[in-house]
Amino acid sequence: MERPSIRSYSIRGTRITEAQRAAKRALQEIHGIPVANNKLDLRAIFPAAEKIIMEIGFGMGEATAIIAQQSPHNGYIAVDLHPPGIGKLLSRIEDGGIKNLKVIEEDVHVVLRYMIHDASLDGVHLYFPDPWPKVKHHKRRIVNSGFLDLVATKLKPGGYIHCATDWVPYAISMEEVFSQSEKFSGGVIDKPDWRPVTRFEGQGLDKDHRVTDLLYFRKQ
Ligand SMILES: C[S@@+](CC[C@H](N)C(=O)[O-])C[C@H]1O[C@@H](n2cnc3c(N)ncnc32)[C@H](O)[C@@H]1O
């Protein structure tokens, strides 16, 4: 399975605590989905789910766990490759008795391309993706035309992608990239009450960053 040549994530800051390592060891088998070159049967994983939603880049997973608990009728697949966060979210699932949330440790480009059937997701959450503020790093920003094509293929017609960022230039760039795609319609929205403040967002708010939420729908 081929990973993208340009990484949208940083491999720094991956120091893992003993508790997070232990959680990964004990719980990944229970609450994780192994990476494989096989499309997942999402209905078998979440037989009663009304909607199946993927969160991309959940970080330490605090908002992810709250959203899954708030909406037990939906099934959630959380994708990241930051080992401490994987361990932390696995612990949250176990401690909270959360039944509708599974974790995949891999680059989301690989997960979407090789593990997700076309037109099978009802929604995608992308909260506070790495902003890559330096111009020379803009190519690392996950929201680009290739990513939107991939997401559009995996969303059901009418399915949504909800993004949030605390970096205004990235919000403007996201709007531009979406507006250039024929596959999406939508735009900036007020922050929905149900979206918890994430850890990364809290750090941005402490620095007086302005947060932008964007909601787009896969055209029919
Ligand atoms: C800035 S953090 C935000 C985390 C969290 N959403 C929050 O708001 O606190 C971005 C996260 O996206 C993850 N990430 C970046 N590129 C990714 C990719 N290609 N596949 C999966 N996760 C990715 C990083 O590992 C990191 O945990």
UniProtKB/TrEMBL annotation:
Keyword hit for Oxidoreductase? no
Question: Pfam families recorded for this chain?
Answer: Methyltransf_4
* GO annotations of cellular component type: tRNA methyltransferase complex
Q: Which PROSITE patterns match?
A: SAM_MT_TRMB
- The signal peptide, as residue positions, is none
Question: GO molecular function, one example?
Answer: tRNA (guanine(46)-N7)-methyltransferase activity
Q: Give the enzyme's main class according to its UniProt record, as a single word.
A: transferase
Keywords associated with the record: Methyltransferase, S-adenosyl-L-methionine, Transferase, tRNA processing
- Enzyme Commission code(s) on record: 2.1.1.33
Descriptive protein name: tRNA (guanine(46)-N(7))-methyltransferase
Q: Which organism is it from?
A: freshwater metagenome
